[in-house]
Amino acid sequence: MAKTDSNLLKKIIAHAKEYGFIFPSSEIYDGLAATYDYGQNGVELKNNIRTYWWQSMVQLHENIVGIDAAIFMHPTTWKASGHVDAFNDPLIDNKDSQKRYRADVLIEDHIAKIEGKIDKEVARAAKRFGDAFDKEQFLATNGRVLQYREKIAAINKKMQTAFAAADLQAIKDLIEELEIACPVSGSRNWTDVRQFNLMFSTDLGSVAGDASNIYLRPETAQGIFVNFLNVQKSGRMKLPFGIAQVGKAFRNEIIARQFIFRMREFEQMEMQYFVKPGEELKFYEAWKEKRYNWHRVLGLGEENYRFHDHLNLAHYANAAADIEFNFPMGFKELEGIHSRTDFDLAAHEQYSGKKLQFFDPRENKSYIPYVVETSIGLDRMFLAVLTAAYTEETLPDGSERLVLKIPPALAPLKAAVLPLVKKDGLPEKSREILHELKYDFNVQYDEKDAIGRRYRRQDAIGTPYCITIDHQTLEDDTVTVRNRDTMEQIRVGVSEVKTTLEKETAITGLLRQL
Fold first, then answer.
1. Cis peptide leading into residue 240 (ω within 30°)
2. Which of 66, 356, 500, 511 is most buried, most CB within 10 Å of its CB?
């Protein structure tokens, strides 16, 4: 279900801290901007998302393998990749509010407002015509909609031209032409647009020469490219094949905000798929579909996803699209699928002097493969899950509850084991059941407070099932299993609990739908 609460992000931030998902980093020292620590429940959710991605990408594909490359890399890596010269954000300041913005985001937000006007026209027409409404025909023929679309196309063309030429003055001119105002001050009193390089630099020991100055990697992809030959030869890989990696990356974001959506230290889940030149766009389309399906089976709501095709392509790409998610801040990039051509391998071959090619026995020749990339931010995926899961409900009896409807396979805890009372042998029986379950599932024991309050506590952290041990358990070895989402309770034998949890909470259930 799409979220419309304007205060949703604030609620999620507060809830994440209260229930052990995410804490401000170094909080006892008043924190450090745009850095966060994952708490006891957060790290479990994050691990489960990572596992779902890794198993779907590596375990389910015979021709995809994983690596874990070092964060520190030889500095020439980043010269070859283009990051030293071109990894910049175009930033602009509002003189009245003293706030700094990415120029491209200001323009994209302006376009989004025009797209919102189109959505309103569609909604009004749908209401007016009812079942007879033909959305596609309306979008293709309505005069006002066509005007809005022409305006968007014109803005996109100017933006693409300006960014392709790195024309900072043209970018500022476009912002002024569109009369874009600062969201804080409301004024249009802008500075010139300036470029800021986003890489963190540091010194490495006492290495001689230029190599002593190195960078924290701004992306994980280059660790894959420089290991292309190592993996290909040691694994006897044949095209097409992929290399996957999960790891930390670091960017000196000048404007880091919106909770964990944009941070200076973050985690990426990337896969580079090496293909024969000329076949890259076929695989690009295939991976767009595969990656969208990976999201779809989680059940976060198909209306919360959309594709955004890039008009302003990166220097290495011949096609690119984002899977956007409806975050509390609106639709924003969650995952990128890019056709990177042979830019990276060719650049590393040039700078290293090492041949980075694949020998094709069928054609009896060597060539540099092309690459299709899928790249998703693990932290952004975490926020997407929280956004879709956060639910405030009014129950039939008029009471309210706050529940995180996290997909059971991703939930931090799979079940809570709850003795009805702290006496009569119920705690002992409960711990006996807990002991049997803990080898297969992450489960929690809780005996504090009334049973209703304990249910609410587990709802708030997204635990799919609560297993209650009562006096009847001692008589017939059955327990009550409560479903988080429906709150329905059923009586099952203790021997059936493990089977129930396996069926409902295993990541295998998601993988079988891919």
1. yes
2. 356
Query: Token pair for residue 278?
Result: 């000329």
Question: Quick check: helix, strand or coil at residue 484?
Answer: coil
What is the reported pLDDT for 377? 96
Whose CA is closest to 149, among 115, 182, 122? 115
Provide the residue range defining the domain that includes 144. 88-197
Please report the pLDDT score of residue 256 as a whole number.
Answer: 63
Q: What is the 3-state secondary structure (H, E, C) of 401-467?
A: EEEECCCCCCCCCCEEEEECCCCCCHHHHHHHHHHHHCCCCCEEECCCCCHHHHHHHHHHHCCCEEE
| Model pLDDT, residue 68 | 97
Give residue 366's pLDDT.
Answer: 95
- DSSP-derived pairing of the beta strands 489-493 and 100-102: unpaired
Alpha-carbon span 344 to 85, nearest angstrom: 15
What the block records as the tokens of 143 is 């005069």
- pTM value is 0.82
Count of C-beta atoms within a 10 Å radius of residue 161: 13
Question: For strand 443-445 and strand 415-419, is the pairing parallel, antiparallel, or unpaired?
Answer: parallel
Give the CATH number, domain containing residue 140. Answer: 3.30.40.230
CB neighbours (10 Å) of residue 450? 10
Among residues 197, 214, 232, the one where a domain terminates is 197
**CA nearest neighbour of 254 among 267, 246, 245, 263:** 263
Torsion of Cα atoms, 261 then 267 then 269 then 273, to 10°: 110
| Nearest partner of 479 among 488, 489, 466, 492, judged by Cα | 492
For position 1, what pLDDT does the model report? 40
Q: Which residue has the tokens 């957060």?
A: 42
427 CB neighbour count, 10 Å cutoff: 17
Residues of the chain with pLDDT under 70: 1-6, 86, 205-212, 254-256, 312
Helix orientation angle between 143-164 and 103-129, rounded to the nearest 10 degrees:
160
Per-residue CA distances from 205 to 65, 79, 159, 201, 209 (Å)? 32, 21, 43, 13, 12
Query: Which H or E run contains 19?
Result: none
Residue 325 backbone dihedrals phi, psi, to 5 degrees: -120, 150
Whether 486 is in a domain gets the answer yes
Residue 2 confidence (pLDDT): 42
Please state, in angstroms and as integers, the Cα–Cα distance from residue 159 to each residue in 162, 277, 325, following that order: 5, 30, 23
Domain end position, chosen among 153, 176, 197: 197
pLDDT reported for residue 255? 63
Specify the CATH number for the domain of residue 503.
3.40.50.800
Would residue 242 count as lying in a domain?
no
Task: Tally the domains of the chain.
Answer: 2
Model pLDDT, residue 355: 94
Decide if 141 is inside a domain.
Answer: yes
Per-residue pLDDT, 31: 83
In terms of Cα–Cα distance, which of 310, 264, 346 is closest to 81?
346
